[in-house]
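Exercise 7 asks you to align residues with tokens for two separate proteins.
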Amino acid sequence: MDNIQFFIYLAIMALSTYLIRAIPFALSRRKIENTFVKSFLCYIPYAVLAAMTVPAVFFSTKNPISAIVGVIVAVILALFKRGLLTVAVAACAGVFATEIVLSYL
């Protein structure tokens, strides 16, 4: 009985995910010409990614202080237009160094 219930839940989740993505396409029959709406739609993927990533960053370490240090390092390097790998490695190094320092305090 548990397997059937799992597949029912899975089908409902798949259907709801599909409908959320398909309904806007079904409702708009013509090409979007409004520049405000176009620019708004261009930023949605970045906003969703930020909404999923940022909260996880602050709860991924033992101490929120080390998470804040990692975010600060990442933001500073990103502002200086460093590459993604450089930013990620430096942020991890900042978190690691902060965790080591905080373990001695």
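Second protein for Exercise 7:
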Amino acid sequence: MENDDKIAVLKNDLSSLQFALPVRTEEGNKGDFGRCVVMGGSANYVGAPQFAAESAAEVIALLGEAAMRSGAGTTVLAVPDFLASALYPVVHYSAIFPLPSSGGGIAFDRETALRLSHRATSFAVGMGMADGDAGSWVRFLLDETDCRIVLDADGLKCASGTGGFKGRAVLTPHTGEFAAMTGLGAEEIKAHSARLCREYAAEHDCVLVLKGHESVISDGREVWINSTGNSRLSKGGSGDVLSGIIGGLLAWNVPPLLAARTGAYVLGRSAEFSRVNALAHLPDDIMHCIPLAFDELQGVMRL
């Protein structure tokens, strides 16, 4: 395949991904498969405070479940202290870690960061953070840990000022977010998505997933096009599930490019497997279909 910039692109499909994930041995335990920390939330939500807190909690809990569904041994939901109580009723599998807050957003504190990152192998940063200090957290993770990182939503605001990501980060902007990150217009991005995606990934030493009807994925060298998915994904929260899937894969040491490619494929394929109609479909409904997508990647036949 080629696009209008004559850049060769590869199809991110079942034949290119099947059996590509590392083998999980029967002897493994939860400690062998890493810990994904999901960091997000703020006071900057529309609506009555109680409903806003519950909404934020449900989205963040959704990310934690997506990370577990994609292989992380354990997950931790790190949220501003005032949101922690809203998480308890909706969290089933994750630990909850209250973070210091300032002005309604997550604040950075080095002692807290050292405790939170202990034994963590990946972080998903940015969902609902608003003006929280994502930049200081990402800089700490890059400079003082070996953790891999997924950046999405409000976490992408710090991308340009972070410098290089040392090959350890996956960024997942949609077209509007990528426009804000680069200063480019949406039409230019759509017309030259493969070239721009590759150039950004190469310049910032990261993997970029430029989300869209067909998502473009690049590590600065290879460029992949993912076409799985349907209109069931056109609901708020679907991109958060993608971040959770990628974060879970990164947690158990799947390389960033493979994690990004697998995450994009699995999210889209899960929407295709879903039996809930597109009108009523919610991101929660994707969860029940993620195992089917991973079965497909592992060559599992269900009777």
